[in-house]
Amino acid sequence: MRIWILALTLLCATGTVAQPKVIAHRGYWTAEGSAQNSLMSWAKADAVGCYGSEFDVWLTGDNRLVVNHDRVQKGTDIDMTKASARTIRKIILPNGEPIPTLDAYLRLAKSTPDMRLIFELKTHDFVREDLAVRKSVRRLRRLGLLERTDFISFSLNACLAFRKAVPEARVYYLTGDLAPWSIKNLQLTGIDYSFAVLSQHPEWVKEAHDLGLEVNVWTVNREEDMRQCIAWGVDYITTDYPERLQALLE
Ligand code: MG
After folding, report:
1. Most CB atoms within 10 A, among 39, 89, 94, 153?
2. Structural Rg of the chain based on CA atoms
3. What's the rounded Cα separation, in Å, for the pair 18 and 199?
């Protein structure tokens, strides 16, 4: 009997340790009244107690930073990298909000101290990325948000620029074409790969952990895929349905 209780306790203890943290993808945009990368999506992710909320950042044609996913907004010919912030701000999201400036987004984040910022810099040319990194880091530092921010990018150049600008920052690479040892050699914090990539290379989770790296996986929306990620022992799961994942983890 005692052995069973001990075994059960150990199982529960290990179970707790292995629990991945929940990250809302583009904010909690599937919640009512929300929209991808809107201020509301941040507030909704915070309201349900997500560990972090992911958002996408562009450097505009007039060197301002805005939060949006697509480079060219659907139904318009407005290109985030070419248009002015003023023009971009005129785009209204499905929930009625304008596309937020990074500044508005960060000010809201500042008011919700419990959630980590999962800051994705979109891919630009290298010179523009370097400028975007410098501007972003300066702004985050000034607002006292740098310690709460994890940086992610499909651009290796952007990842390395964040690493150089903030040596202690947590930086994760998204593209999925590099094995964990390469990420270790580049001195990044970990991999943030798609479910499809990790399904091809489930051994990368253990390899990453053995190297002291962390593993995040996107964008995991189906319950069976969430279960698979939990079984792999990933550290973070990025999802459009954070409450679905939270219910599964309970
Ligand atoms: Mg993103």
Report:
1. 153
2. 19
3. 19
Under 8 Å CB-to-CB from 51, ≥6 apart: which residues?
A: 21, 22, 23, 115, 116, 236
**Residue 167 burial class via C-beta count within 10 angstroms: exposed 0-12, middle 13-18, buried 19 and up:** exposed
Query: pLDDT per residue over 209-242, tens digit each?
Result: 999 999 999 999 999 999 999 999 999 999 999 9
What is the CA(219)–ligand 1 centre distance, in A? 9
Compute the distance from residue 92 Cα to the ligand 1 centre, in Å. 19
Residues 6+ positions from 212 with CB-CB distance below 8 Å: 184
**100 C-alpha to center of ligand 1: Å?**
15
Beta strands in the chain (DSSP E): 21-24, 52-59, 65-67, 116-121, 149-153, 170-173, 190-194, 214-218, 236-239
Instruction: Please give the model's pTM, rounded to 2 decimal places.
Output: 0.93
Compute the distance from residue 29 Cα to the ligand 1 centre, in Å: 12
**CA 21/CA 19 separation, integer angstroms:** 7
Architecture, CATH, for domain 19-249: Alpha-Beta Barrel (3.20)
Answer yes or no: are the C-beta atoms of 93 and 38 closer than 8 Å: yes
Angle at 235 between CA 229 and CA 237, to 5 degrees: 55
Q: Is 22 helix (H, G, I), strand (E, B) or coil?
A: strand
Q: From the CA of 16, how far away is ligand 1's center (Å)?
A: 28
